[in-house]
Amino acid sequence: MSDQIRLLVGLANPGPEYAKTRHNAGAWVVEELARIHNVTLKEDKKYFGLTARITHAGQDLRLLVPTTFMNLSGKSVAALAKFFQIKPEEIMVAHDELDLPPGVAKFKKGGGHGGHNGLRDIISKLGNNKDFYRLRLGIGHPGHKDKVAGFVLTKAPAREQAMIEQAADEAVRCIDILLKDDLAKAQNRLHTFKAQ
């Protein structure tokens, strides 16, 4: 299987004050997968994150939510990937995406960081390897780049939050398709989804 994913990372900032902020959307996907599989994400200091292990679609899959701050996410990802000898192309990183509206999520393989500090650090700590998968969860854009920092660190209004969560739920179902079939099939389904 070409699209083997062994590590699914959900980007977030640590601490209860950030738990429901837009920047933590990536972690919601990993938390939902853990919930469905009835496992608890446990803190593991050697990987600087919360981790769990599941068997999903017949594959061994590690879940990781870094407990570093967003701009240091790569420290956590690189530590776990190195220990388990997981190649960058076997990693999927779920993250918030300013360039997509709430309720939309997309899979992508490779590419730049698009100004996302979590992705920037992961690329750097993986030896500038950009070949990992991304699950981009739309959070919308505040309209001006000067407003981005405050925007990602605040909670979305209830309706937008519900749409982001619907897209995250659909993404979890599509990860299942990706693991069982391939990226193209998963993209076909996820990329036509739009939360109501």
CATH topology: Rossmann fold
Individual helix count:
6
Measured between the Cα atoms of the first and last residue, the distance is 34 Å
Uncertain segments are none
The secondary-structure element order is: EHEEEHEEHEHHH
- The tally of structural domains comes to 1
Number of strands: 7
Helix content: 25-40%
Binding site for tRNA: 18, 69, 71, 117
GO molecular function, one term: peptidyl-tRNA hydrolase activity
Function: Catalyzes the release of premature peptidyl moieties from peptidyl-tRNA molecules trapped in stalled 50S ribosomal subunits, and thus maintains levels of free tRNAs and 50S ribosomes.
Subcellular location: Cytoplasm
Q: Could you write a compact summary of the structure shown?
A:
This protein has 196 residues and is an alpha/beta fold. It is built from six helices and seven strands, in the order E-H-E-E-E-H-E-E-H-E-H-H-H. The longest helix has 23 residues.
